[in-house]
Structure formats: C-alpha cells, structure tokens
C-alpha cells in the first residue's frame, strides 16, 4: 500500500470512486468542519479513556455531533470499555486508506454508535497496527463529519506521527499524587515537543487532575492536591475527577459506561466548556488564547 505524501494526495485522480473495508474514499477536500481534541496521560490506568468517553457524553448532551477515536495503539479496546464490542461496525483494523483519504459521512455511517456517539475503536486482537496515514485519514474524515472528535491517544505515541493530532487542542490527564505531578511535568515537556510547541502562541494543554485511587475515604486532601498541582505545574488544573466505584463496577461487569457520575459532572462539564470555548483547536497565530493565566477549579 503506498504511503501517502502531500504530492500523492494532491494528484489523487479519484473522487468517491473506490471502496475498501466498506468505506468510500474520495480525494481530500477542504478544511475539516469539526475539531479534534487529543487526550493523553503520562501513565496508563488513571482513567484517560474513561474521561474521554465521559467528555463525549457531555458534549453530545449539549447537541454536538461527537466521535470517539481510539488512537491508543499500545492499548485499544475502547469499544470494550464502552460495552459496545458486539455492535456491528468498523474498527481501525477495517480501515484501508489507499488514497490517503476517507469520506467522513460514510465512515460515520459505518461506525458502531454508543448513545449516538460514533466510535472508532482500536481492536489489536482483530488485526495489525494501523499505519500513520490511516490514522490521519480517519481523523480528517471524522472531523469532516462531526462537530468534535475526541481522540484517546493513551500516552501519546501517535501524536508526532499524525498531524491532525499534533495540531489539535491537547488534554492531559494527571494523577493528583507526588509521582503523578513529576510525571506530568515530564509529559508536558514531551507534549510541547511532540505538538511543535503547544503552549507557545497557542493554548497550553488543558490539564485534568484525577483523584488517586485507593486513598483512605476520610482523606480530604484531594482539593488541596489540586491547588498544589496548579502551583507545581504553573497551569490551570480542572478537577478533581472523583473515584466512582459504581463506574468501575459497571465496567468490570461488562456494562460499560452508562452516564457521567453525578459527582464528576462538574469537572467533566468544566472540561467540556473549555473544549467548546476554543472549538477544540489551538488558535491561529495572532489570535488571543482564551484561558491562559486563569486559575480554575471545579
Ligand atoms: N472516575 C473513576 N472512578 C472509578 N474507577 C474508574 C474511574 N475512571 C476509570 N476507572 C476505572 O479504572 C480503570 C482504568 O480506566 P481507563 O479509563 O481505562 O484508564 P486509562 O485509559 O488511563 O488506562 C477502568 O477499569 C475503569 O473502570
Ligand atoms: Mg486508556
């Protein structure tokens, strides 16, 4: 399969003429309609995929057409997390973008839905790793056909290879612990490089602090930790995202995520506000960032 280059895309002679993996492809079109937001965290297991999904639910509840894109190539299984793995439809393993372009509405149509949200899952047990240009084509297609595309990028390995991810607004999910903060600082640095300078002339990543699991119940220091996190990172931190045993229990029982838990609505709502306020994109050169320097807690 040819690797896509700018030249090959520009010279593509087809328009809507090929079909592969059940999706129609055509030549690359204009700027995508929707916006791409990339979620990463410095370490696995802290709830990044769950937060991506909860944010999708919240934005969808605000009448935004949403897609969830599982680009955690070392993990995957967003469909299982959501409890929709038996729904018919395409996953990343079914995509084939020989012309480097996928038609957005057609892709949307062939994806399984979770509560009205289109889900492109990574299912490594069903096939090989997708190529970078396939991720790029899928991101562009989803952005064409949705108001917002929430990408679960795991630790972010795909970001430097997929321009729509590198250009997107970043959300960094961090553990509100000392170790979490140390890792967060390193991840912020890494993101800065991987996104070619997010935070310089654009918006810094939105940071969401997650309450540590297993902390004793009577410990109320989590909001303190949020203040400390803000001071340590020198950036706003939304949160804390609370540990919700019922959410975990539902997932363990294979019921997936059913709704945004009540005591997480404020934090997830604040993140959704932030995404809506910036349209999910980093502002163009000369455009004023909207949140830089504000201190916020939810
Ligand atoms: N807010 C939460 N409260 C309780 N359990 C959670 C919460 N968020 C995630 N979990 C649980 O933690 C596990 C890991 O979550 P996941 O979103 O897959 O993390 P990550 O994507 O960071 O690896 C899952 O089993 C999930 O049920
Ligand atoms: Mg994950």
Write up this protein:
It is a single chain. The radius of gyration is 19 Å and the shape is globular. The longest helix is centred in the middle third of the chain and has 17 residues, at about 180-195. It has 10 helices and 10 strands. By secondary structure, it is of the alpha/beta class. Strand 8 (about 170-175), helix 7 (about 180-195) and strand 9 form a beta-alpha-beta unit. It has one domain: Rossmann fold (3-Layer(aba) Sandwich), CATH 3.40.50.300. The strands form 2 sheets. It has an 8-stranded mixed sheet, sandwiched between helices. It has a two-stranded antiparallel ribbon with strand order 1-2. Mean pLDDT is about 85; it is low at about 1-25, about 280-285 and about 290-298. Helices cover about 35% and strands about 15% of the residues. Helix 2 (about 50-60) crosses helix 10 and helix 4 crosses helix 5 (about 130-145). The structure holds adenosine-5'-diphosphate (ADP) and magnesium ion. Magnesium ion binds near residues 48, 72, 75 and 152.
